[in-house]
Design brief:
84% helix, 91 residues, 3 helices
Length: 91
């Protein structure tokens, strides 16, 4: 693996970790470095990524919707358990 690929993959991985930990400005900066490296190494891949961006955004939106619905169901079930009185408990 040459240094450009290492820089590109490392930037994307570090950017993803920073994004998930809430450090969004640093994450976007690293993602930009990764994209710039991708553009210099493989301009045709960047063009394909650009063309397919709406599809990726739609898939990401669906994934977020599924996760939100799942978390909402979990929250509803947990709140239902809290209203059930414990047997033998004094009132």
């Amino acid at each position: 693996m040459d240094w450009k690929k290492a820089l590109m993959y490392g930037s994307f991985a570090a950017g993803a970790i920073l994004f998930l930990t809430g450090k969004r400005p640093a994450a976007f900066a690293l993602a930009g470095i990764g994209l710039a490296t991708l553009a210099s190494e493989n301009p045709e891949k960047l063009e394909e990524l650009w063309r397919r961006m709406p599809e990726y955004i739609e898939r990401g939106g669906k994934a977020v919707d599924l996760a939100a619905a799942f978390l909402e169901r979990i929250a509803e079930r947990q709140s239902g358990y809290r209203t059930v009185p414990i047997s033998g408990a004094s009132r």
